[in-house]
Here is the input.
Amino acid sequence: MPDKFASASARHNHLMISELFTVRTGSRLATDVTDLVLQFCRPLGDGLCNVFVPHATAGVALFEIGSGTEADLELVLEGLLPRDAAYRHRHGSPGHGRDHVLPAFVAPSLVLPVLGGQPALGTWQSVVLVDSNGDNPVRQLRLSFVAG
Amino acid sequence: MPDKFASASARHNHLMISELFTVRTGSRLATDVTDLVLQFCRPLGDGLCNVFVPHATAGVALFEIGSGTEADLELVLEGLLPRDAAYRHRHGSPGHGRDHVLPAFVAPSLVLPVLGGQPALGTWQSVVLVDSNGDNPVRQLRLSFVAG
Amino acid sequence: MPDKFASASARHNHLMISELFTVRTGSRLATDVTDLVLQFCRPLGDGLCNVFVPHATAGVALFEIGSGTEADLELVLEGLLPRDAAYRHRHGSPGHGRDHVLPAFVAPSLVLPVLGGQPALGTWQSVVLVDSNGDNPVRQLRLSFVAG
Here is the structure.
């Protein structure tokens, strides 16, 4: 029996490593999830890690946490997506329409290169769940790994 | 003969599953392509699906379709990329310069985690082709799948 | 010995192809790195290529280079992230706060489908390193490839 068919079948039996996590975001715009991503990747080898939020009013971003950028992002979002604009979307709290536009700009999906179980992040890069929707204080985050 | 060379060669013979689709966008800013993505992924197993538009004036996003967000996105884009700004780009219809800036913010590439042939989308997430360029009513969309 | 364990182990020994490059961005907002990506992918087969900048004040985008869009992006960024806004972030040159918000909108990670060693880019798509931070004239770019 040719090895190549055996290995192809082994390959199809090999499931992607994917896990769903719960993250408490409260009313914070930016929640640092770097540690979660680091822990998830540690036992894995080389590959690509997808960071994904299955929500319509949240996104994932890579930026520096802890030096004021969270507040600066809030400032910029207030310019881009003003709470008091005439949004068509009418569910939820006033200004909730803007939360639904957010993921068009801060996408809910991000891919990280992983080397030897370590995301190859720069020194100042944190993985951040961006959530302008304070009405949902608990969010889900899916991490998925495909080996190289 | 060591199995690992056989399998490595099987691996290189294993092509990525990738298909190019034609999507009629007309003059719509937002075209829902979720069904196309669902159908493409159904026979596939676990892995990552890349949604890609090979165009310089379009992007791909994940947001809720059908509750007014399309109109709200149009409103926000008019603020971010005003039609009447002094764009340097001079080809096409007036204001076409803004269409060329769009993909810097709404990227033409998106990755979805797929489990058992199903993209792990949230309840309100639709895959949306975003196209502010009404001059090109027909677009291409490439879906590519890499198994986990 | 069952082939599938042999091949699974071969699979884990198979490292992702990942390389770190140095890019001179000078004081340019947009640096075309398409050629670098094309060269990196050429010997590779079918798969996904991740383009990643390990920096907190830069992003990666796909847009047309050479027709004025670089200047138009600068214009749009000046509206979205004005240099003279009251940023909380205080390190670096005046207005440096905006550079830290940039990657929330122009993400530092991008995935390209690759077919037979060629990124499936559209005619007018260039891979662009976007860097609003003139204080760092040299940047790193990581390219990683996972076979399909």
Q: What stands out?
A: Chain A touches chain B through 48 residues (CB under 8 Å). Residues 22 and 140 of chain A are 5 Å apart (CA to CA). Residues 69-80 of chain A form the longest helix (12 residues).
